[in-house]
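Researcher: Structure for this, please.
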Amino acid sequence: MNESIIQEFNNKSKTLYVFFGGINARIGMPPFEFYNSAKIIEESKMFVRDFSQSWYQSGLKGISNNVLSTAKYIKAVIDELQPENVCFVGNSMGGFAAIMFSELIALKEKNVSVVAFSPQTFIAPKLRKLHSDRRWQKQIVKMQIKNLLNKEMYLDLNALLSINRAQRDINIYIGKDDALDVIHANHIANHKGVTVHTIGGGGHNVIKQLRDTNQLHQIMGINR
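Model: Predicted structure, token format:
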């Protein structure tokens, strides 16, 4: 299975969940994150993963070649499906993608929400250096090299969220003991419609704590 996207649609559903995968911590193909956790959800679902591991800046294998063409593809799927509600979900790099694409697609006529766990909100080298964020340095450098000629990159979500929108519902979940995740969340916390939820413990892998304490489904269910 080497697809960038898996779609599981329910014709009776009024809600579409779009799940974005994060950085693959293991050797081999990046997984479709949330696939098992989402089995309990009886709504339409779309799972997205980034084979290039470049915060979705390089597009999706076999589908698109940059952020905007990926956004266009996802919007076309949404337009065809015509759900009343759309929820973008992601963890870490996937959380970055969930926020980014929710802003770029900007579905004014629908109830749109975002659930992002421990997301990066900037990947710009200057900001990473400013905040001493040295995580995933190998992937960041690879992304920069791969996108030398790419003029359609989105490296700072603060700039993207600075565009005023009448409707925005972004919920960010972070472990309060992870200093860098706190910095990233605070980077966009002042924007209208952004709510930061701090969880005791869990670190960058706060999603595991929420899953183990049976809070994950409840959090995603709020946005149904």
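Researcher: Any notable elements?
Model: DSSP finds eight helices and seven strands in the chain. Residues 100 and 157 are 7 Å apart (CA to CA).
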